[in-house]
Amino acid sequence: MTPTSPHATSAAHPGPEADPPPATPRTAPPPPETAPPADGRSSGRFLVRAALVTAVLSVAGSVLGLARDQALARLFGAGGETDAFLVAWTVPEFAATLLIEDGLAFALVPMFSLALARRARGVTGDPVRALVASTLPRLALAFTAAGALVAVAAPALVRALAPGLADHALAVDCTRLTATCVVSFGLAGYCSAALRAHRRFLAPAAIYVAYNTGIIAVMFVLGGRWGVRSAAAGVAVGGVLMVAAQLPSLLRRLRSHEGERPSVVADEAARPLALALFTTVLLFALCRQSQVLIERFLASGLPSGAISHLNYAQKVAQIPMTLSLMLCTVTFPVVARALADGDTVRARDRVERDVALAACLVLLGAATVVACAPQILHLLFQRGAFTAADTAATAGVMRVYALGLLGQTVVGALARSYFSAGRASWYPFAAMAVGVLATAVVGASAVGPWGVRGIAAANAAGITVTAALLLAGMGPRSVPVRVRRVLGDLGRPLLAAGVATGAGALAADRVTGAGAGAGAAVSLIVGAATVGGVFAVLCPALRVRGPGTVLRSVRPVRSPSPRPVTQRHPHGRSRFRFPFRADR
Q1: Is residue 574 situated within a structural domain?
Q2: N or C: fewer beta carbons within 10 Å in the chain?
Q3: 32 lies in a domain?
Q4: In a domain, 562, yes or no
């Protein structure tokens, strides 16, 4: 079932000109179904349920993603054949960022939130159906054209991405198979944005479960005959499953207002704004994902397997970041709706709490990754064609890459804020461009002396620069957060994570027998427990706000119970008037 919020317990604020009759208190009728309140406010209990559902299904998708990478490593190792597929994997990586996560969602969620706010205000027609009618056909045509272009230009694309790649033809074949995901990911991202704006999170959270299930199934069915091309075919199948997982829920949302005619006037007025918004959002997401292009380009000139080591390191290290942004994914529609309603204070408080909590969680995960990198990779990948040498090389890369996880999380959390008002903003794109330039400069300088570790260091440096620029630009360009407070929320858990990393690494290294599978598991448990224990002790001592934010997020949002206000009647009698409540 889709998570819903409890019934509203107070009347909606009708405005100062609509006072109720003095002698007859009025209460709002209960809503027809258990769902988020029509005014866009969500209780803490609803947000927790939605975040829990999203986190559970996202963890399941991440686990299946690890199983997918394990199957890829087991079946095809970390050699030239896998490198060829991973060059083609650039297409679904870009498509996911542009069309599902950081791109299309940043534009569509505020647009749907504004349409829902207008529907709640009783605008003639149905603004939501008007938005779908005006955007979906055009976007579907654009997705199809872009996918066809990628398939046709696959040879040139592979040469540009990895000029030093050994098996060029194999990479071209895989790229053409994965080009289908441009269409399927675009439609899946559209459905996800619309459903999240409607506060429906179950189906959007399940898409990566469906996606990775499709890839794994196709790899095992066709791997013996098609080789690594089976993984590319699995991307095509998984993309279709992502759309199928969400379409029924979206159709139900649209059919609930099927009798209302869309408002054409509102659609025409929104087209120029929508075009500018889509342009700035997609350029930001494209620029952010171009870090992968720089990494693959630099790694293609290194010995065989460098791209694979970088890929496996990123996949594992990014798990803490993905989990830490789950709450931001759930609350992004809340921030967008607050701004649509003109409540900047509620939006500011929500963003500050989200950044504090996300930073606390990602730093705990990053500390565990750095402290226990060899043990994690040993247990996950070291079997079949993935050797102990691959584990050692990937662990070194993963530890360096993890240094940029805080920057990745801050960029993911703050970028949403820039676009949550549904306005075009060029500042995030400019900040990301500076970060990408830093990645290219540092990577070109570091790849020679340090190899693939230098590439990982460049990634961490570039994304940290972008995070600093985005935080510095908050204010009139975005939600006006209190920058000093946010810096404090980032600095205190960073200190705790540094101490916990050192303690966890020492504890894990002291466990003997880490060369065997059981020994690696014990070493990982000891190291992770030490990291968690030290971090938990230091957080209260340093007054880290993250754990307190968790408790405040769990607590339902309640307003004081309205007390009757006694007023004197002109003829000497008393009368009672119940004041309205406006929940923040």
Answers
A1: no
A2: N
A3: no
A4: no
pLDDT one-digit tens code per residue, 111-167: 887 888 777 777 667 788 888 888 889 899 999 999 999 999 999 988 888 787 777
Tell me which residue has tokens 């020679």.
448
Residue 310: which residues within 8 A CB-CB, separation 6 or more? Answer: 295, 299, 397, 401, 452, 455, 456
- Helix, strand, or coil (residue 568): strand
Beta strands in 137-213 (DSSP E): none
Number of domains in the chain: 1
Return all residues near 3 (Cβ < 8 A) that are at least 6 apart: 46, 49, 50, 52, 53, 201, 202
Q: Which helix (H) or strand (E) holds 574?
A: strand 574-577
Model confidence, pTM: 0.67
Residue 488, in any domain of the structure: yes
Amino acid letter at 311? Answer: N
577 strand-pairing partners: 565
The answer to whether 340 touches 123, Cβ cutoff 8 Å, is no
CB-CB neighbours of 273 under 10 Å = 14
Query: How many C-beta neighbours within 10 Å does residue 130 have?
Result: 24
Evaluate whether 139 touches 147 at the Cβ level (below 8 Å): no
Q: Write down the pLDDT at residue 260.
A: 54
141-180 per-residue burial string, b: 16 or more CB within 10 A, e: under 16 = eebeebbeebbeebeebbeebbeebebeebbbbbbbbbbb
**244 by DSSP, 3-state: which?**
helix
The DSSP letter of residue 262 is: P
Q: In sequence order, which residues have a C-beta less than 8 Å from that of residue 328 and are 6 or more positions away? A: 354, 358, 412, 413, 416
Alpha carbon of 410 to those of 7, 149, 328, 417, 493: distances in Å? 34, 33, 11, 11, 14
Output the six-digit token pair for 289: 């994902």
> Please, are residues 102 and 418 in contact by the beta-carbon 8 Å criterion?
no
Q: Which residue has the tokens 């409607």?
A: 198
Q: Which domain holds residue 62?
A: 44-548
Burial of 333 (0-12, 13-18, 19+ CB in 10 A): buried
